[in-house]
Amino acid sequence: MARKPFIAGNWKMNMTAESGKQLITELKPLVKGAKCEVALCVPAILIPAMSKAVKGSKIKLGAQNMHWAESGAFTGEISAEMLKEYGVKYVIIGHSERRQYFGETDETVNKRTLAVLKNDLTPIVCVGETLEERENDKTKSVLDKQLEEGLKDVEDVTKLVIAYEPVWAIGTGKTATDEQAQETIKYIRKKLGKLFGSKNANKVKIQYGGSMNAKNCKGLMAQPDIDGGLIGGASLKTDFATIVNFEK
Ligand code: PGA
Q1: Strand pairing partners for 127?
Q2: Which residue's CA lies nearest to atom 9 of ligand 1?
Q3: Which atom of ligand 1 approaches the CA of 209 most closely?
Q4: Does the CB atom of residue 165 touch ligand 1 within 6 A?
Q5: What are the pLDDT digits (tens) for 3-21?
Q6: Least enclosed by CB within 10 Å: which of 22, 155, 164, 218?
Q7: Which helix (H) or strand (E) holds 166?
Q8: Domain ranges of the chain
Q9: What is the Å distance from ligand 1's center to 73 Cα?
């Protein structure tokens, strides 16, 4: 069966309850006829208000991180139970900004991913190389390590989503070309095949992320291995609906 496309927005540390509600109100009619899966991953504090705002629409709610423990002395962290109480379905794990600025490692990515799956939520596991790594021909070895260690002990890989986000393309306006994104995502699928069997790998949704916008989304989405997008900047505007409607 063909993989259903999945477009997810990542608001990062942007928006307020007020502006978020307003944007969702504008987006709702625009994404009504969308054929793909749609989600917005919002800051944790906005989850209660946004869970109300998205009611009755195609937009599902996602979080930007989750701790692996059920509860306890982990100041500043958020548990699965807290997310599920508000109907959250997706959790971004291991975003490059978390890796770069907040000490996220492949080991903690793995712990979080396993916990998200155990709680019947869908992790969007982010992988990707820096510019320096790409220029030094290390893209494949970086991705290998992120996938081997980040997805260790995952029992059913078809239950997660991978987001390939080359760090040099995030928030820079420098999108990977359609060919670069396709080639690397094809490599990721091949690697997943080695780790989990090619039948399973063919069922995994793999998104592209990094300056994807209303203009370049069609070309990227036309690539055979690209199943969706993780959208930062363009998810803060109604442009997000244009991306969601890329098939029209
Ligand atoms: P961008 O962010 O679309 O603003 O480049 C993508 C992401 O980091 O998820």
Answers
A1: 164
A2: 232
A3: 6
A4: yes
A5: 999 999 999 999 999 999 9
A6: 155
A7: none
A8: 60-244
A9: 31
